[in-house]
Amino acid sequence: RRARWFAILAAPAILVGAYTYYYSDTLTTINGSYWTTNGSVAATSNGLTASSANGGSIISLVTAPGNPSEYEVNTRLRLTASGAGGVYTHYLHATPDALSGPAGQGTYYAVEVAPTLGSNGLCFATMELTMRSGGSSTSLASTNVPCRDGMTVRSVIRADGLILAYVDGYNYIKTTSTAIPGGQPGIGARLTPAGNSINRVDLGPRDSTAPDPVNA
């Protein structure tokens, strides 16, 4: 019996129906077939950067499979510079010209994370959800979040208007807005210091598959 249980515990895990992103990019280049570029943004060996105050954005040209108005944006941040670490943005239901910040343009929901890395190695950040429509911007939610080099930021929007934002798998913002019924996902940044970047983005459809039953 002991040998039987050992065999069960040692068996490799099988992920049935695991979630799959429909597009992934390490952002060492900007492929014009997949992205519309706005403002001043650059792809480097470390990922996407935008050092100017107005920054830049890249909006996806790839339509989410299934219902194109519900999807998620997942990014990994490289944070190695001390002090103010820049502002990193997820765009949801965005128009092709969407760009947040001081020189905002287009229409979008934007989830923005602004980290600060202290000299003692501690990192803290703010997260804010804003909406830009009709030429004006409105803050929908904001909170403080933890941060670190290699942190992941995930934003989800559903067709019914539910918007969720996560850091490293923990949910920090949950709100609903139906003011912008549809549009594309995207990412962007501004004020990024040397060494900081978005070094991976994954775009995925809404996960509507129920988990498998637990094997008794």
Overview of the molecule:
- The protein is mainly β and 216 residues long.
- Helices cover 4% and strands 48% of the residues.
- It has 1 helix and 16 strands.
- Strands 2, 5, 7, 8, 9, 10, 11 and 15 form an 8-stranded antiparallel beta sheet that branches.
- A hairpin with a 4-residue loop joins strand 12 (152-157) and strand 13.
- The radius of gyration is 19 Å and the shape is globular.
- The two termini are 17 Å apart.
Helix content: under 10%
Rg: 19 Å
Q: Which sequence of SSEs, written as H and E, runs from N to C?
A: HEEEEEEEEEEEEEEEE
Q: Provide the β-strand percentage band.
A: over 45%
The coarse overall form would be globular
Distance between the termini: 17 Å
DSSP strand tally: 16
Low-confidence stretches: 4-16
Counting DSSP H or I runs of 4 or more residues, the number of helices is: 1
* Mean model confidence by pLDDT: 91
Q: What structural class do helix, strand and pairing data support?
A: mainly beta
Largest sheet: 8 strands, antiparallel
Provide keyphrases for this structure.
single chain; 1 helix; mainly beta; 6-stranded antiparallel β-sheet; 216 residues; 8-stranded antiparallel β-sheet
Describe the structure concisely for a colleague:
With 216 residues, the chain is mostly beta strands. Helices cover 4% and strands 48% of the residues.
